[in-house]
Amino acid sequence: MTGKIVVGYDGSAAGRRALDFALARAKAQGASVLIAHVLEWSPYSFLTPEELEERHVRRKEEMARAETAVMKPVLEKLGESGVPIETVIKYGHIAEKLSEIANEAGAMQLVVGRDGNGSLAARVFGSVAGTLVQITTVPTTIVP
């Protein structure tokens, strides 16, 4: 079977467990892996043009930092994995963007890690994993 597995990756231990799970499945199924990193970003319509330009500059800096600090190290570690790997970095609501990335990629599976942190914020506002299972149309695996 060939296909693509999208894995949400943020450099955390939970993200690494999700990536390891996705790589094992990809090897077993002859699939490729798309590592997706999403930087949380919400648009503010009440900003001045100068403030919007400052945000745009910060966004570019954050994208470059994510490439250097998150994606490059993991790609170096996975160089010998034997699995075809692609990466993507996007801005937006994390769960919504991961779902969008998986749909656009034609993914057969979406994999995310769960950190086990049952914080009040996660209970009130919802976790990425919890939101994904409600909105995505791609089979989703949450790795503990």
Largest sheet: 5 strands, parallel
The overall pLDDT, averaged over residues, is 87
Q: Which stretches of 5+ consecutive residues score pLDDT under 50?
A: 120-125
Please report which band the strand proportion falls in: under 5%, 5-15%, 15-25%, 25-35%, 35-45% or over 45%: 15-25%
Description:
This protein has 144 residues and is of the alpha/beta class. The protein contains five helices and five strands, in the order βαβαβαβααβ. A five-stranded parallel beta sheet has the order 3-2-1-4-5, sandwiched between helices. The longest helix has 29 residues, at 49-77.
Describe the structure concisely:
By secondary structure, the protein is α/β, with parallel strands linked by helices.
List the helices and strands and how they pair.
Blueprint (H helix, E strand, L loop, with lengths): L3 E5 L4 H17 L2 E8 L9 H29 L7 E7 L2 H12 L3 E5 L6 H6 L2 H8 L4 E4 L1
Parallel strand pairs: 1-2, 1-4, 2-3, 4-5
Task: Please tag this protein with its features.
5 strands, 144 residues, Rossmann fold, 5 helices
